Amino acid sequence: MIRKVFISVVISIICCSGIATASWWDPSYTYQAAIGISTGSAISSSYSLHINLDLDDLFAQGKVRPDFEDVRIVYFDGVSYIDLDRHIRQASSGYDIWFPIQTAKGANDTSSGEYFVYYGNSSAIDAPKNYNNIYLFYDDFNGSSIGSQWYGNTSYYSVSNGMLVIPAYNGTGNIMYTDSFQKNSVREYAVKVSNLYGRGQLYIHSLGSYSANNDWGNGNRIIHDLDGGSPSTQTVRMDSNMSYYWTHSTTQFQIFQDVIYGNTQTFYAGDSYADLTLKATAPTTNSNPYGTFKINSVWTKQTWYMDYVLIRENVEIAPTMFYGLEFEATVIPEPLSIACLLISLTGFMLNKKKRKYNVTEQ
């Protein structure tokens, strides 16, 4: 076993040290690395993939622009290249780069030669960023009014300065909701509140039934609960009697995730995407295979603001992502880049008699 891994490493070093002319997606980009995918569970054509890169280090080396506009995820279908939409998010370490898978993959499948990361173009602008092409649903409320992807009592809400305004209301809830999406999903949103004084509640039905005002008390109800301005009595509560203390912010958007798979939902929260931490685990309260995302303004004595809503597909065992060595456009041919990544993956597989995956959704 040691000999096989050693041989694969030696071959990798030898083959990757050659100098040759290259076929390249775009000659204005200096650097490239192949991306490999190793699945646990099967993933559908609507799945969102991500890799993690230390873009700050690449910037310090002068390899990427400070705004990362030259960082591109490119798909090769065997004939042509596609510059994919991507969403760059600062993580607890490095940056997660999210992008849409182009073809479904079966369980326990390892592949390379389809996806590449390119960077190193000081003139690059307007990287593709349509997040609805990456996720099942995304709305960052950047327009001047509520988008057509929302239903229900939308006239009660408004959009201002790139955020959804949820006005104070003390009475029967006014619900707006999305289309219905699959239950096995990650449902994420960011909110802040106008003030912390006076008892008030914001209800989020992260997996609601598909109609406007029918699920008081069910549908994975998440309650952002304020009680008289005392931070010690602020909580985030769930239908299943799970709760955790949380100090809501009046100045910055805080992120909340409901990660759902099967009969279990796991809650994460943080002051940012990079700070998301596990807060609670509970059984789901909705057995339907699909559900909407609902905002319910009942008993909100404060004005709440929502920065975005994001829904993406979730699987039991998330894929593992690999990326190969970095190559320069005039140094190494792209097919050799793929070969080197495949050799690296082979070494990885030879070194594993049994593969085990640990999944953390953030």
Biggest beta sheet attributes: 8 strands, antiparallel
- Tell me which CATH architecture of the largest domain applies here: Sandwich
- State the end-to-end CA separation: 35 Å
Q: Return residue spans where pLDDT drops below 50 for at least 5 consecutive residues.
A: 1-22, 350-362
Measured by DSSP, the beta-strand proportion falls in 35-45%
Number of helices: 3
Overall pLDDT level: 83
Overall strand count:
25
The share of residues in helices is 10-25%
Count of the domains: 2
Radius of gyration over alpha carbons? 23 Å
Could you explain how this protein is built, in words?
This protein starts with a helix and ends in a 12-residue tail after the last helix. The protein has helices at 2-16, 55-60, 334-350; strands spanning 31-38, 48-53, 72-76, 81-83, 87-90, 95-100, 110-119, 137-139, 151-152, 158-160, 163-166, 175-177, 181-182, 185-193, 200-208, 221-226, 235-238, 243-245, 254-261, 264-270, 277-283, 290-296, 304-313, 320-323, 327-328. The model is unreliable at 1-22 and 350-362 (pLDDT under 50). 10% of the residues lie in helices and 37% in strands. The longest helix is centred in the C-terminal third of the chain and has 17 residues, at 334-350. 36% of the residues are buried. The protein has two domains: 2-135 and 316-350, no CATH class; 137-313, Jelly Rolls (Sandwich). Strands 8, 10, 11, 14, 19, 20, 21 and 23 form an eight-stranded antiparallel sheet that branches. Strands 9, 12, 13, 15, 16, 17, 18 and 22 form an eight-stranded antiparallel sheet that branches. Strands 1, 3, 4, 7, 24 and 25 form a six-stranded antiparallel sheet that branches. The protein is mainly beta and 362 residues long.
